[in-house]
Every structure is written in C-alpha cells, then in structure tokens.
Design goal:
Blueprint: E1 7-16, E2 19-25, E3 34-35, E4 37-40, H1 47-59, E5 62-76, E6 81-94, E7 105-112, H2 122-129
Parallel strand pairs: 1-6
Antiparallel strand pairs: 1-2, 1-4, 2-3, 2-7, 5-6
C-alpha cells in the first residue's frame, strides 16, 4: 500500500522595504504559479531553521526574525499531492535574491502590496482565504 499521508511544507513570507519576495515555480506541482521560498520540513528541524535553510538554498539570501504566521491544508488534485503548509514571516537580512535551484524556480521578484502576482501557488491562496495577510 503506497504511503499517501500528507507531507509537511513550509512557506516563507520575506519582507524587505515593504515588498515580499515571490518566485515563479517550475518543474513541480504548481508549475507556472508564483510562490514563496520554502520546502519540506526535515526530521527534527525547527520551523525557523527550515525557513533559513530553504531560503538560502533556493534564493541565496539570509533572513532574520522568523515568526509563525499560519497553516493551510492543501490538496493538489491534478498532481495527487497533499501538503500541510506551515507559513512563517521573516525579514530580509542579506544577499541578492537569485535563482540557485533552476529546476524549482524560473525567477525571483520583489512585489509590493498593490502589485502581487495574479497566479499564486495554492497554499498562498488558502492562506489568504483564511484571512491572513502577506503585508
């Protein structure tokens, strides 16, 4: 019997100069949508450590002041994947946002609250539907 239990994902809302970092996804579920940095929570890892590790691995930047922001339950029907997504917020610390893992992201851009991307990754849609704010 295949293991069809949900996986644990983590998304990082990174703020810098009243903007948030979004990346255009490629090569996985949510292909073509705009997402946050993040990834899978590793065994024994804290939310804060996961956020710092994934952001550095994917976008090459350091973050600080990591805080819990919310959680969503996300079933990606087309891809037959189920995730519980933990959201954290963080402040930009240092580095220049760039694509470090081109198999996961096409590009990164900073967006202000009046100009967030239209095609958002499903967990972000659910996060906003719950009444949470990105800014």
């Amino acid at each position: 019997m295949p293991n069809n239990r949900p996986k644990i994902g983590l998304g990082v809302i990174i703020r810098k100069d009243n903007k948030i970092l979004f990346g255009k996804r490629c090569g996985s579920h949510g292909d073509g949508t705009w997402s946050l940095t993040g990834g899978h929570l590793e065994f024994g890892e804290s939310f804060e450590d996961c956020a710092r590790r994934e952001t550095l691995e994917e976008a090459g930047i350091a973050i600080k002041n990591v805080k819990f922001a919310g959680v969503t339950n996300d079933v990606h029907v087309k891809e037959n994947k189920h995730y519980v997504t933990i959201f954290v917020s963080a402040d930009y610390d240092s580095g220049e946002a760039r694509v470090v893992e081109p198999d996961k992201f096409e590009r990164f851009e900073w967006f202000d609250k009046d100009n967030i991307p239209k095609q958002l990754f499903l967990p972000i849609i659910h996060f906003l539907e719950q009444g949470h704010k990105l800014f």
